[in-house]
Amino acid sequence: MEEKIKEGLEQIRPFLQRDGGDIEFVEYTEDKVVRVRLKGHCAGCPGAQMTLSGVVERLLKESYPDDVARVEAVK
């Protein structure tokens, strides 16, 4: 599952990099939580939570509805 999640994040990465940010996969937990680290401009951006839930989480949940419960950012 981790490889599939990483592939999904690769689809999102260019969108974030265009604005000077990036995303890094950290962990996939037993309770189906994907943990990621926002980097660059995304790390301090006021809209980061909106990007995380509105873009990253939505895409991963649509792609893997039975395998992703939520996405969380870690530092």
Structure commentary:
The protein has 75 residues and is an alpha+beta fold. It has a single domain, classed as GMP Synthetase, Chain A, domain 3 (2-Layer Sandwich). The chain is built from 3 helices and 3 strands. The chain has helices at 2-18, 41-44, 48-63; strands at residues 21-28, 33-40, 70-73. The protein has a 3-stranded mixed sheet with strand order 1-2-3. A hairpin with a 4-residue loop joins β1 and β2. The two termini are 22 Å apart. The mean pLDDT is 94.
Which architecture would the CATH scheme give at its second level?
Answer: 2-Layer Sandwich
User: Any idea how many domains?
Assistant: 1
What low-confidence regions span 5 or more consecutive residues with pLDDT below 50? none
Number of strands: 3
Computed over alpha carbons, the radius of gyration is 11 Å
CATH-assigned homologous superfamily: Fe-S cluster assembly (FSCA)
| Shape, per Cα inertia axes | globular
- Strand order across the largest sheet: 1-2-3
Q: What count of helical segments does DSSP give? A: 3
Whole-number average pLDDT?
A: 94
The largest β sheet comes out as: 3 strands, mixed
**Helix percentage:** 40-55%
N/C terminus separation = 22 Å
Q: Give the ordered list of helices and strands.
A: HEEHHE
Class, according to the CATH hierarchy? Alpha Beta
Residues in β-strands, percent: 25-35%
Quaternary structure of the protein: single chain
Please identify the structural class as seen in this structure.
Answer: alpha+beta
